[in-house]
Design goal:
α3 crosses α5 (187-199), α4 packs across α11 and α10 packs antiparallel against α11. The protein has helices at residues 24-49, 53-76, 83-121, 152-184, 187-199, 213-233, 237-240, 246-254, 256-283, 289-315, 322-352. It has 11 helices and no strands. The protein is mostly helical. It starts with 23 loop residues before the first helix and ends in a 7-residue tail after the last helix.
């Protein structure tokens, strides 16, 4: 498999290449030192943003991405590092990354659901029973042409459903914002920042790191690649090859546990694809756009699945009006259609890729 695309907005600049004489430890230190620099710069910008809400959000996002990259690299290249140190720092970075991601996730989820409600209750067609929907990101597939227009119940319930979602997700976003501020002011975070500052100047390496980079880095990166390929092979891509997977949609609509069982393997592939991308950033700067596109599609899959879960949770609110519950049910089904569209798009990208080879 060739290296994946880093065209996303969080792709960092990487060195132009590693000379063959460079040791694995030196190559890994160069990459992690750069990511530690990203982390510390983002932390400084966060502190300097003051009351600039947009600046604070941007700095928190950059801090989150730097923490995620460092953590993923420590995971993949653990055999070259001091294992106890790497595991401890990974645990702390995972806590920080998850905490910082929540506020943005709530904002994006609310925007996605309100936009979908507006589309479903307005002039845009509701996905038809035959599953004629617009697939994601320009992937091949049928488009909605003769789907029924919104019913009166949907139009009436959409406004109330939107208000309910806005109350619930705004409350969740406020709590996430408070949790992020509390985390950034905690002694635990200061310990993480101190560890990253040390990482920017000195990397605790193991004995294997003294080997040439061309010999010691590749095996660890290949493990990450093989895990990704194996996880994709376990997906039901033959069913995802149909633009409307009725069986999967029925299971996804049945219960929360059934939906989670459907989504979890795909979320795992998304995580493994990210680890593979980070490993390739360490190895070389030349990238293949195909797997970058696959990553974007899997991001949309995750977003749609989580939005569907939020709509389902809102529909379980006690004593809501029938029209509101109906609108939330249509919204849930719409987002599950988006999940299936993303799966269809992913299998198209993966199947047609010349970058994919057997492990």
């Amino acid at each position: 498999m060739h290296s994946p695309d880093l065209s996303r907005e969080d792709a960092p600049a990487v060195p132009s290449g590693h000379p063959t004489a460079v040791t694995a430890g030196e190559a890994l230190a160069r990459y992690l030192n750069a990511r530690a620099g990203d982390f510390l710069r983002s932390l400084r910008l966060h502190g300097e943003s003051g009351s600039d809400t947009a600046g604070v959000a941007e700095a928190a996002g950059s801090l989150h991405m730097a923490a995620r990259r460092i953590s993923g690299t420590l995971h993949t290249f653990r055999p070259l590092l001091d294992p106890g140190w790497a595991d401890d720092l990974r645990t702390e970075l995972a806590w920080l990354s998850a905490t910082l991601a929540q506020e943005h996730a709530c904002t994006s989820r609310l925007n996605r659901l309100l936009s979908a409600l507006s589309r479903l209750s307005g002039a845009a067609p509701v996905p038809s029973a035959r599953g004629e929907f617009l697939v994601l990101d320009g992937a091949m597939g049928p488009q909605a042409t003769d789907a029924p227009r919104p019913s009166g119940s949907l139009t009436v319930g959409a406004a109330r459903a939107g208000a309910l979602l806005e109350r619930q997700l705004t409350l969740a976003r406020t709590r996430a914002h408070s949790a992020a501020l509390q985390a950034l002011g905690s002694s635990r975070f200061h310990g993480v920042a101190d560890a990253v500052a040390v990482l920017a100047s000195e990397l605790p390496l193991g004995p294997v790191a003294g080997a040439p980079a061309s010999e010691a880095l590749a095996p660890a990166a290949e493990v990450a690649e093989h895990r990704l390929v194996d996880a994709v092979a376990a997906l039901p891509l033959s069913r995802a090859g149909h633009p409307y997977n009725a069986e999967a949609l029925v299971h996804g609509l049945a219960t929360a546990s059934a939906g989670e069982a459907q989504d979890a393997p795909w979320h795992q592939v998304r995580q493994l694809l990210r680890l593979h991308r980070y490993a390739q950033e360490v190895l070389c700067p030349n990238t293949d756009p195909v797997l970058g596109r696959a990553g974007l599609v899997l991001d949309r899959h995750r977003d749609a699945a989580e939005a569907a879960a939020a709509a389902a949770a809102a529909a379980r609110t006690p004593r809501i009006a029938p029209a509101t519950a109906y609108a939330l049910g249509v919204l849930h089904a719409d987002q599950r259609h988006e999940v299936e569209a993303a799966r269809f798009a992913f299998q198209e990208v993966w199947r047609t890729s010349t970058a994919v080879s057997a492990p």
